Amino acid sequence: MTKEKHFSRNFSLKLIAAIMVFVGMFVVAMVFGAANTTVKDVWLALTSHTTNEQITIIRELRFPREVGAIFVGAALAVSGAIMQGMTRNPLAEPGILGLSAGANAALAISIALIPSANYLTIMVACFMGAAVGAIIVFGIGSMKKGGFSPLRLVLAGTAVSTFLYAVSEGIGLYYKISKDVSMWTAGGLIGTTWSQLQIIVPFIIAGILFSLFLSRQLTILSLNEEVAVGLGQKTTQIKVILFIITIMLTGASVALVGNMAFIGLMVPHVVRAIVGTDYRYILPMSAIIGAVFMLLADTLGRTINIPYETPVAAIVAMMGLPFFLIIVHKGGKVLS
Amino acid sequence: MVRLFTDELNVGYSDRLIVKNLSVHIPDKKITAIIGSNGCGKSTLLKAITRIISHQTGSIILDGENITKENTKVLAKKMAILPQTPESASGLTVGELVSYGRFPYQSSFGRLTKKDYEVIDWALDVTRTKEFKFRPVDALSGGQRQRVWIAMALAQETDIIFLDEPTTYLDMAHQLEVLELLQKLNREQERTIVMVLHDLNQAARFADYIVALKDGQIVKAGNCEDVINHHVLRTVFQIDTEIGRDPRTNKPMCVTYNLLKGDS
To answer: Any CB–CB contact under 8 A between B101 and chain A?
Structure first.
C-alpha cells in the first residue's frame, strides 16, 4: 500500500466539499427571507453599487446578519472542539462549562452599570465573564482529587451556569433592564450591524487562526497528558493559551448573539465522524461546518414563520437536544 | 559512567512522600525492570524520572544535566515514555498516531519531512504494525495497540524508553510478544529500556538489572540473581517463595509462593 499521503489528500477533498456546501448555504441564506429577493438581487448587492429596496435589504440587513452567523457558528464550533480535546470530555462545550453563562452575566452587569457602554466594552466584559464562569466550573471540578471527570465537570457546569443565568436575570429585574438584556441574549442575530462586526470579527478570526496553529498540540493533549509531556509539550503553557482562545471565541460570540448553546457540542462530533480525531483536521472543518450550521439555523429562523422571527437559539436548541441525549447515551464512545 | 541516575530523590505530596531519598543508576543500553508491590512507588518513580510529575527534593541527572533545567523538547529527543494504558480515546489512525512521535523534531507548523516519514515507516516495520497503518488505533486488539504505542515511542528516536507496565491487560502470548520486541530493540539497537513490571518471572527473564522497591525505597538493585531470591522477595512482597530455575533460560524463577503468616 503506497498511499503515503492518502489521508491528507482525502482531507483536502473533504475540505473542498465542505467549502462548496458552505458557499451553497450562504447563497440560500442570502436569497431566502421575509422580503422577496432573488439570486439576481443578491448578486447585484454583492458585486455592484446598484440600489433598490431589495438590494438595500440584502446589503444592510441580511448580509451583515449572515456574516455574523458565519463567524459565530465557526467560533462556537472551534471553541467546543478545543474544549472537548483539552478536557478529553465529549460533553465539553462553552454553553455547558459555564463560559456562555459567565459572558451573559457580564453582559447584564455591563448594560446595568455602564449605560454608555459601547460594543468594545461589552465584548471585553463578555471575555471576562466567560473566563470567570469557566474558572469557577473548573475550580469546582478539580476541588476533589481526580476531578475533571466528564460527569463532575458537566454537573458543576450546569450548576454554575444556572446560577450565573439567575444573576443575569436578577440584575435585569433589579435595574429594570430585563428587556434590554433579553433582547441581547435571546435576540440572536437580529439587528447585527457592520459596525458591530468590525469590532468583534477580528477577535474571532484571530482566535481561530491561533487555534489552527496549535492544532497538533491539541491532538497530543487530547491523547493523554503523560504522552503530551513525554513528547516534549509544555502542557501548562499550551492549556493556558487554548483556554484564552476559547474565552475569546465564546466571549465574542456572546457579545454578538447572546446565548447560543449546543453548537459547540454538536459540530465537533459531526466533524469527527467525517475527518477522524486529529485536530489538524477537526478544527478547520469545525469552523466551516459550524458556519454552515449557523447559517442554516438562522435561515430557518427567518423563514419558518414569516413575517415573524423564530429565535435562532430555540432552533439550535431543538436540533441540539436530541444530539446531546445521544452523546450522553453513548458515553465517551462518540469521542473516539 | 551512566547517563541517567537519581540522587536522593523525594517525590510525593506535601504530607506524604511516595518515593523516599532514592538514589538509583540506570545502566546504559540495558533492560531495567522496576518491581514492587502495589503502592510501593514504582510508577511514581518512573513518572518522576520522566518529568511527568515533579519531585520535592533531590535530583535526576541525564547526561550531566538536571532534567528540571533541561528544555522539555530536548528531553523528548532523549527519552520516550509509554504511560500505563494510554486512554484509547484515539480514533487516530495508526499512521497518524505514530507520526506524532516526530513531534519533538518539528517546528510549530512543521510538516513531516522525508526523514520523518522514513523513521515512521521504520517504527511501523519493527513493531509489525505497518499493515494497520490506515486503521483507527481503537479498532485494534490490546496487543496490537500496545505495539502501536511502542512504535510511536520508537518514532521519537530516543536512546532511552520508559514503559509503565507494558504487559498489563494482555494475554500470555501477547505479553511475551511485547517483551521480546523490547528485548530485540535493546539487543539490536542498544536502546536503554526501563519498565515497571508486575510479573517477577518476566522481570527475571528479560531484565539485565532489577530494582526492587518497598515503601518508596530500594530494597535491592542488581542483576536477577541478586534480586529474585527468597530473602529479597520476602522483604519486598511479604511472600514466602520457592525459587527454581527456568529450564529453558536458566534464569531464576519463582516456582510457587505463599503469603507470609503474621505481620512481618
So the answer is: yes
